[in-house]
């Protein structure tokens, strides 16, 4: 809470005599959930990416205006149609004390390619070739327009630290989804903070890494304690009372309250995360019929959800791609017509409706449980009886991976800030080998849509890419591949005396390594 921790008596006395105050700066952060694992490639989620940017470093990272800035890569150049060369920083040290070299990036790339969650992102890439200790060539199978976009997901892992076997004979580098592995419990990166304490679901303590390479950063925080506070009112109250210094998210119901409060700042920006429901065609025969899927879409009042539940703090959606993305089709509008929905149900032979199960998280997205309750109520108007269960994030993701309900909520921010990424993970035909469809719990599959995605991913001409991606988006809309709800806006609350507005971004993982507190 911007508190100053007392130093040992001898140092304090010496400092006083010297006329200089030695003190450590601590900041308390409250999120709605904490990371589910310390493994940077176990779970593709916002919590993991936040952890990664605190403890690891990527080759490059996004700026607030969605440009690229160097991190472990000092510079880069396209040396041929399928090769991007990165010149790496020298004198970078891992938290273990091991020196960072090109072999660590090569090792990290190979591990990421094996991750069930991340291999889809790296599917277009064939290899990292080590040129020398501080030069690598990132190679693709064909010309690829999103090389730097993808390089933001290459967080250097300490290959020596994660290699070998544990005392019980397990491979230290194995990736275990929602399981107990060496990498899920132990961590060594090059980032600004080390994990000094972790109690899952209670707190994570990050201490400043004394040997961090980025000495130009204005960040001066020595300790960050991340505490998960699921309940929105409790999280906001903790900020306003001074118990914590930074919170995310600020719920729509409390935006005005935080904005008017003394001593705190409200920071907002438009978001690009689409909140959706998927309809499982493998579990529910009716969902194989596009008319039934469309009826579900017609029954859901997206505008009403944004107006009443989100208090206007969201953008009503009818597609995955937000405005500004190449695949966005401006003419697509949300469907909402109860009578039309009933007609479609009757045409499909389900005039009397049917029963389904539904699952949603209750601490992952803004108002996620309230949104799920509203959707369940809306579906009852067309005869679909919903058995709804909401779960904390830590329990929800294993259930999602198991496709444990007939309809499941999933929010998605395009990892590459590109339209193709939505389809790759949410609606592409499921393929365990490539990682496509990794978060497609509905079982939707259209080879024509997949072909358009592949064509877009191999096309460097922007006009042609736009054409392919918009054709893809139109197919998903016409076939009601999923139920789009809204793009979730972003809001953070922070105490005065911090440069919080400078470290946040549309990707929703603030760069806490650059957090500066006025002393």
UniProtKB/TrEMBL annotation:
<dbReference type="GO" id="GO:1904680">
    <property type="term" value="F:peptide transmembrane transporter activity"/>
</dbReference>
<keyword id="KW-0813">Transport</keyword>
<dbReference type="Pfam" id="PF00496">
    <property type="entry name" value="SBP_bac_5"/>
</dbReference>
<protein>
    <submittedName>
        <fullName>Peptide/nickel transport system substrate-binding protein</fullName>
    </submittedName>
</protein>
<comment type="similarity">
    <text>Belongs to the bacterial solute-binding protein 5 family.</text>
</comment>
<dbReference type="InterPro" id="IPR030678">
    <property type="entry name" value="Peptide/Ni-bd"/>
</dbReference>
<dbReference type="GO" id="GO:0043190">
    <property type="term" value="C:ATP-binding cassette (ABC) transporter complex"/>
</dbReference>
<keyword id="KW-0732">Signal</keyword>
<feature type="signal peptide">
    <location>
        <begin position="1"/>
        <end position="23"/>
    </location>
</feature>
<feature type="domain" description="Solute-binding protein family 5">
    <location>
        <begin position="68"/>
        <end position="430"/>
    </location>
</feature>
<dbReference type="GO" id="GO:0015833">
    <property type="term" value="P:peptide transport"/>
</dbReference>
<dbReference type="InterPro" id="IPR039424">
    <property type="entry name" value="SBP_5"/>
</dbReference>
<dbReference type="InterPro" id="IPR000914">
    <property type="entry name" value="SBP_5_dom"/>
</dbReference>
<dbReference type="GO" id="GO:0030288">
    <property type="term" value="C:outer membrane-bounded periplasmic space"/>
</dbReference>
């Amino acid at each position: 809470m911007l508190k100053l921790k007392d130093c040992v008596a001898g140092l304090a006395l010496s400092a006083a005599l010297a006329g200089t105050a030695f003190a450590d700066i601590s900041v308390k952060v409250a999120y709605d959930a904490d990371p589910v694992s310390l493994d940077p490639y176990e779970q593709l989620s916002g919590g993991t990416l936040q952890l990664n940017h605190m403890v690891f470093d990527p080759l490059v990272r996004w700026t607030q205006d969605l440009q690229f800035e160097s991190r472990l890569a000092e510079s880069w150049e396209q040396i041929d149609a399928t090769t991007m060369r990165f010149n790496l920083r020298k004198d970078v040290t891992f938290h273990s004390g091991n020196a960072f070299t090109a072999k660590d990036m090569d090792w990290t790339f190979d591990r990421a390619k094996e991750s069930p969650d991340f291999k889809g992102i790296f599917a277009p890439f064939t290899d990292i070739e080590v040129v020398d200790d501080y030069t690598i060539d990132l190679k693709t199978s064909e010309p690829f327009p999103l090389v730097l976009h993808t390089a933001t997901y290459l967080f250097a892992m300490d290959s020596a630290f994660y290699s070998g076997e544990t005392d019980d004979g397990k491979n230290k580098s194995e990736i275990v989804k929602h399981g107990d592995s060496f990498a899920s419990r132990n961590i060594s990166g090059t980032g600004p903070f080390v994990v000094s304490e972790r109690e899952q679901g209670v707190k994570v303590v990050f201490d400043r890494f004394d040997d961090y390479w980025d000495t130009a950063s204005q960040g001066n925080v020595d300790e960050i304690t991340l505490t998960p506070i699921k309940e929105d009112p409790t999280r906001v109250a903790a900020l306003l009372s001074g118990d914590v210094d930074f919170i995310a998210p600020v719920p729509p119901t409390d935006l005005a309250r935080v904005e008017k409060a003394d001593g705190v700042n409200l920071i907002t920006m438009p978001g690009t995360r689409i909140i959706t429901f998927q309809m499982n065609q493998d579990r529910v025969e009716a969902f194989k019929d596009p008319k039934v899927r469309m009826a579900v879409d017609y029954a859901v009042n997206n505008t009403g959800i944004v107006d009443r539940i989100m208090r206007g703090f969201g953008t009503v959606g009818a597609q995955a791609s937000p405005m500004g993305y190449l695949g966005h089709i401006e003419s697509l509008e949300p469907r909402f017509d109860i009578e039309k929905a009933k007609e479609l149900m009757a045409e499909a032979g389900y005039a009397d409706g049917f029963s389904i199960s539904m699952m949603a998280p209750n601490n992952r997205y803004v108002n996620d449980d309230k949104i799920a309750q509203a959707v369940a109520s809306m579906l009852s108007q067309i005869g679909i009886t919903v058995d709804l269960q909401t779960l904390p994030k830590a329990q929800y993701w294993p259930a999602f991976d198991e496709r444990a309900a007939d309809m499941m909520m999933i929010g998605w921010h395009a990892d590459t800030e590109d339209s193709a990424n939505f389809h790759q993970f949410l609606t592409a035909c499921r393929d365990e080998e490539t990682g496509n469809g990794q978060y497609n719990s509905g079982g939707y599959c259209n080879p024509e849509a997949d072909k358009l995605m592949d064509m877009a991913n191999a096309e460097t001409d922007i006009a042609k890419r736009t054409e392919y991606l918009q054709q893809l988006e139109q197919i998903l809309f016409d076939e009601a591949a999923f139920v789009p709800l809204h793009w979730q806006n972003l809001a953070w609350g922070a105490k005065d005396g911090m440069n919080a507005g400078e470290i946040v971004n549309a990707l929703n993982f603030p760069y806490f390594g650059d957090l500066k507190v006025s002393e």
